[in-house]
Amino acid sequence: MKNCIIASTSTIYGGKYLDYLLPHLSDLYSHTNEVLFIPYAQPGGMSCDAYTQKALEAFKHIGKNVVGLHTFSNPVEALNKAEGIFTGGGNTFRLVNELYKMDVMQTLRENILNGTPYLGTSAGSNICGLTMQTTNDMPIVYPPSFKTLGILPFNLNPHYLDPTPNSTHMGETRETRIKEFHSLNNLPVIGLREASWLELKGKVISLKGQLTARVFLQNKDPFEVNPTTDLQTII
Amino acid sequence: MKNCIIASTSTIYGGKYLDYLLPHLSDLYSHTNEVLFIPYAQPGGMSCDAYTQKALEAFKHIGKNVVGLHTFSNPVEALNKAEGIFTGGGNTFRLVNELYKMDVMQTLRENILNGTPYLGTSAGSNICGLTMQTTNDMPIVYPPSFKTLGILPFNLNPHYLDPTPNSTHMGETRETRIKEFHSLNNLPVIGLREASWLELKGKVISLKGQLTARVFLQNKDPFEVNPTTDLQTII
């Protein structure tokens, strides 16, 4: 049975790394002593060691140890033995490229589907969608494919941003970008605002946090859904 | 001799499509009656016909006809015969994918290098760089390669945005994204703000408009350059 928290962001404004999620992570990882951390999104180019240390500092608050996947000589075995998994944010292209290079995409998928508790934030949430094609990240490396884990039956746009009122910037809004995606693709997209997350328990996908999420379906007007909605029912 | 205008944006705040560039386009296309338009970035998923019509409306003000590359059965021949070329903005992944699918990347490059006057805006400017890896666009389609025309000896980031003061958004800033690019790549990147453009005349690459541009070199602090600077000299 799937058991995941898939969050828009690791950090909310004014907060510390993961702090707003910690009570929920205590529940998610209630039977986990050590979380296997996938650091390959490497935000700002940060090293895997430094990023793992950052995750460890946050998880100490709920009494969990954290080990980086990059420290194992056999990553498939490490994933299969993991009591819990966390993939951090950063650059989705880099993360996906590395998961393909290491040939662990399928193993990661199977473990999540089989119920290993999983936390994703930002890029680590993006990869739970069907494809990574609604990421906000720069294509800093050319991955072998844009296909991702398909834990969710739709794509995500984390850090979803509404158009800024009175903006003088002429670059595309997030909504326009997703419209461009839908001019070539028919996958549903959920725009997940910061401080929102999805909780997966088996087949139920609940929107959590205080905010609504924005749903984009091909050839339909986008609409908002309220917290606690089961997203499985609306796509 | 290269003869190009490579602009951050087609449209500046409060203005109409291309209007701020029209006097310069009169000069660029002084010996051009008909401009060949490459519409494949298809902003917002707009059709190639509608996009070509939009370009035509703007170019009427300087007495030029516009024809869409999509209307030719032999696009290589159309590019080779063109008196002037314009590639509009939109989604860079879609544009690059189409140029590869049509097998015209090399032909377009040769014509620009041989002196066919060229205008690029946004995605149409991005492709003048060495790779498209510093685009802001969503990966809505998987192109065969991220390599682009290499008319410029660096990459561009069009619509460059400074961090928003007091922003509560926790997504990466543009500068962080470019730093992530530089954690894996050593190509210089020019952050070109809206209302700025590059003028290429032979080997000289002049920054035009009223604003400074931001230069990002691997392992160096980013810095600003003033208008009229020849960017060839600083990378």
From TrEMBL, chains A, B:
<protein>
    <submittedName>
        <fullName>Dipeptidase E</fullName>
    </submittedName>
</protein>
<comment type="similarity">
    <text>Belongs to the peptidase S51 family.</text>
</comment>
<dbReference type="GO" id="GO:0008236">
    <property type="term" value="F:serine-type peptidase activity"/>
</dbReference>
<dbReference type="Pfam" id="PF03575">
    <property type="entry name" value="Peptidase_S51"/>
</dbReference>
<dbReference type="GO" id="GO:0006508">
    <property type="term" value="P:proteolysis"/>
</dbReference>
<keyword id="KW-0720">Serine protease</keyword>
<keyword id="KW-0378">Hydrolase</keyword>
<dbReference type="InterPro" id="IPR005320">
    <property type="entry name" value="Peptidase_S51"/>
</dbReference>
<dbReference type="InterPro" id="IPR029062">
    <property type="entry name" value="Class_I_gatase-like"/>
</dbReference>
<keyword id="KW-0645">Protease</keyword>
